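Second attempt. The first submission of Apoptosis-associated speck-like protein containing a CARD had a stray character pasted in from the spreadsheet, which I only caught after the job came back as garbage. Lesson logged: always re-copy from the clean sequence file. Corrected sequence (117 aa) follows.
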Amino acid sequence: MGTVIANCINSFIMQDKGLEAAGLTVYFQTAAAFLDKNYAALVERVQSVMALADVLKSKNMLHEEKYSEIKAETTNHNKMRKLFEALNSGGNVVKEAFYNALREYEPYLFRDLGGDI
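This time the job returned cleanly.
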């Protein structure tokens, strides 16, 4: 029984893949896939970069050194590029926390990019 459940979970983890079951197509997209797919748009359009960085820092998901690097950048574009460096090195857990913060702080952008509110 545990193996069956594990196999089902593994099939749902696939990023950006359609899953066909009983004639219905169910689309699953992870937070990491959403961020990776929308990298350019996020770099270009996120306005509340430091608020998002603050969320990650408050959860101990962003080191002080990287936070300072982000803060030192003079444009939101460059701040987002630095923040993405931290997201990529932090892995899917950090990306999920960022995804949830993005949903809260930038709901219109989030929805415009296809995020599920």
